[in-house]
Amino acid sequence: MIYIGYMIFPMAAGLPWWRTDGVILTAILHAGPVEFLYYWLHRALHHHYLYSRYHSHHHSSIVTEPITSVTHPFAEMFAYFTLFAIPMLTPLFFYKSSVAAIYGYIFYIDFMNNMGHCNFEFFPKKLLSFFPLFKYLSYTPSFHSLHHTKFRANYSLFMPIYDYIYGTVDKTTDATYESCLKRPKDSPDVVHLTHLTSFDSVYQLRLGFSSFASNPHKSKWYLHLMWPFTMLSMIMTWIFGRAIVLESNTFNDLKLQCWLIPRFRTQV
């Protein structure tokens, strides 16, 4: 695919790793044409003629999950990829593109698309309190879940600003967001405490690499190449010194958890 792209777009060869003006142009093109055109395309797809023939397939998942984000008919996928090509190809034609702009935009699309369909609200309330404009610039899982349950609201792609402009935000959006953040506290019956040993042991957790987790207390030569990340993890554990739930199991009514104390052997 890369070679085909070079043949069709010869200006894509030899792109710089970073160009600030190209990254800014990509962001503007997404926030402007892409979000605006997608909003109206999405509203059109909810017209009974197009909905019954195309978009209803996507809405068959009322309770969404990440895979729901890519369950679209071919015609819809073609339209979406055409829109997403605008921020990637326009800077390319003006010789302002970069590797970071193209791959960063692809990552942004995939991340936001899967995040919006994960059906699990995790954006902290403090974020919206500290940065009130955030709710106009980024949707949340609860925002998009209302679209799959109410159907006639919250049409925006990733930026709800157009829903607010055209008055299609569901009235229960804020209340749903706050209610999704209220979760009952999990009180375990049995807690096992553990802590890190060597600096490389952070990669041997289940949150790290499963291949390392199956062989604890063994170091590999290539882990030394990751020392910048290893040192960063040590600094983070020193700053945020709170235990985290490493593993949780339930046997009938008995709840067992393994808590990880974020301290290395040299710090204990």
TrEMBL record:
Query: Which keywords belong to this entry?
Result: Membrane, Transmembrane, Transmembrane helix
Record GO biological process: lipid biosynthetic process
Q: Does the keyword Membrane apply?
A: yes
The Fatty acid hydroxylase domain extends over: 33-168
Q: Which residues cross the membrane?
A: 221-241
Q: Name one GO cellular component term.
A: membrane
Could you give a GO molecular-function term held by this entry? iron ion binding
Q: Which residues are in coiled coils?
A: none
The answer to whether the entry has keyword DNA-binding is no
Superkingdom as given in the UniProt entry: Eukaryota
> Which Pfam families does the annotation name?
FA_hydroxylase
Report the InterPro entries cross-referenced here.
Fatty_acid_hydroxylase (IPR006694), Sterol_Desaturase_Related (IPR050307)
Q: Where in the cell is it found?
A: Membrane
Principal subcellular localisation of the protein: membrane
Q: Which family does it belong to?
A: Belongs to the sterol desaturase family.
* UniProt-recorded name of the protein: Very-long-chain aldehyde decarbonylase cer1, variant 3
